[in-house]
Amino acid sequence: MVTPENMSVEGGGQRGPLFERNGVPGSSGAPVDMDTAIVLLGAGVTAITHPLLYVKLLIQVGHEPLPPTVGTTMFGRKVLYLPGFFSYARHIIRVDGKRGLFRGLSPRVMSSAISTIVRSKVKQAVPVPAEDTEQVSNRDDLKTSFRKVVRETSHEMVVQCLSRIATHPFHVISVRCMAQFVGREVKYRGLFSCIAKIFQEEGVGGFFVGIIPHVLGEVIFLWCCNLLAHLINTYAVDDNFSQAPAVRSYTKFVMGIAVSVLTYPFMLVADLMAVNNCGLAAGLPPNSPIFKSWAHCWRHLSVQGQLFRGSSFFFRRAPVAVTALD
User: Fold this and answer.
1) pLDDT tens readout for residues 239-278
2) What Cα–Cα distance (Å) separates residue 198 from each residue in 46, 146, 193, 210, 215?
């Protein structure tokens, strides 16, 4: 769940002092300079990682233009593997050229910039109390330390939700631009024309399709990650251990990786709802059913055993029986 759009959240506890100098919020140009640097850094990371997310999106919508290949497991059993990232990327280059790998990039860059600005303004308006930034250890009173985690997580949740609401329209535009590869459409071209097209056909609601599972996934991720990290740091890491501070500094990162796997289905459903029944081949039968709601989409994927479709770029097994290969 850590993306270029929300990379500033991870350092939220360290950016607070930048918004206040000599007791006057915003009295220095340093916060502006820092935000500009984060915007530029976020744009660079977004551009570099965009081909990965592009391939991931096409896999999520179920587009498999290349045939599976026969491979063997570590136990010697023959299975069918779907193409990995590099094979898929080469296919996109053959069809659209190298620039084709960056289809839908501009709305993602815009989303990253807006996310940084929103987070900065919210943190400036609602700063985390000073005691919440203290390192929690098992020497603290358990109730006090738990309250610290709850206050800090609640603050991060507000920032994350407001940021998601502000950037979700650009996420929808980006997903639809990328999904056009499936049917070779040119319906969504240019940021402003995309905005006009969605507003004309679907109204304001069209910009927020899929936002519920997206927000739910991020909120669940945030709470699970922070609470698990708190429990591990409090009960599993002994203060007498010489490397305790170093271990605690990595706990949240490791928990983030683990929890992101569990919350991945929410992100998948959000992306599928963004393209569902919007006039693109990727969101219409026979490529995809027309879903009545995100819960309907979730149930369909669950029945098909596809709730984690697109979560891996390599060693993707074809979802068919291959007993004939044995």
Assistant:
1) 666 666 667 777 878 888 889 999 999 999 999 999 999 9
2) 24, 44, 9, 14, 21
Tokens 């026969």 belong to residue: 70
What is the pTM (predicted TM-score) of this model? 0.80
d(CA 157, CA 272): 24
As a whole number of angstroms, the distance between CA 326 and CA 313 comes to 25
Residue 70's H or E segment, with its range, is: strand 69-72
The whole-angstrom separation of Cα 317 and Cα 130 is 49
H or E stretch at 71? strand 69-72
Give the model confidence (pLDDT) of 47-106 as tens digits: 999 999 999 999 999 999 999 888 887 787 888 889 889 999 999 999 999 999 999 999
What's phi and psi for 293, nearest 5 deg? -160, 170
Give the contacts of 49 (CB within 8 A, at least 6 positions apart): 4
Judge whether residue 34 has pLDDT over 80.
Answer: no
Cβ neighbour number for residue 229 with a 10 Å cutoff: 21
DSSP 18: G
Helix H segments across the chain? 12-15, 30-60, 85-96, 105-125, 142-183, 191-202, 211-231, 244-262, 264-275, 294-304
The Cβ of residue 32 has, within 10 Å, a number of other Cβ atoms equal to: 12
Q: Are 202 and 276 in contact (CB under 8 A)?
A: no
